[in-house]
Amino acid sequence: MTAGGKATYAAPAVQKTFEILGLLEQHPGGLLVSEMAALLGRSVGELFRIVVVVEQLGYLRKSPKDDRYSVAYKLLDLAYRSTPARSLVDVARPVMRHLAVDTGQSCHLVVLNEASGLVIAREHSPGTRGFALRLGASIDLLASCSGKVLLSFASPEDRTTAIARASGIAAPVDRDALERQLALIRKAGFAQRKSPITLGVTDISYPVFGFDGLVAAALTIPFLRLIDGSQTIDIDAARALLAGAAAEITEGLSSAA
Q1: What is the C-alpha to C-alpha distance for residues 76 and 203, in angstroms, rounded to an integer?
Q2: What pTM value is reported for the model?
Q3: DSSP character for 4?
């Protein structure tokens, strides 16, 4: 028993399993078992059998080239099927597919995942050129367009909690300046800014709301500007289509409730 009166239980194998999964989230390129052991401060013997079993269950995949292990999509599929993300993706996917075709741009859907955002769905640009985030990518809540939309339209309690968690893994943030930015996004109803990372990309993001009226996700287009004259939809038209798509998903979630 703990000092607070609650029972505690030891499950070393379970603890090590989640340590491995958490570590691999930070290393999408994969790790050798020896590298996992060094980073976790454990022996290879402690981790090897666990890694093999989790791989056999389909939650890890081993590269045939260099024996590095990475998280398999089965884990993401499990998350979809056991959380509200499944119904959200089911409603959003056809809308996102039409949005990608109509705008000629890629789009992605991001949900709040404690201290970060998580890409749970994406549609690629139908053209030969495009810019897209990978499925399962982790998004910086405090710096990204999608993250700021999620924070802007979250309840005050959820916003405070998410900012506190995100601040623990990011550089120090000017809370007053951030709150002013979020207030402007709430007033505008969306966020838009030039990508701080990719030249020629402007991120545009709108909130999607659940049947309960709370923000469920951020629908985002990383708008890639082409200079060869082949672009038929400009950024203003793409933004209008994005707003309509976000509203359509919100309506679909209300109907599915």
Answers
A1: 25
A2: 0.69
A3: T
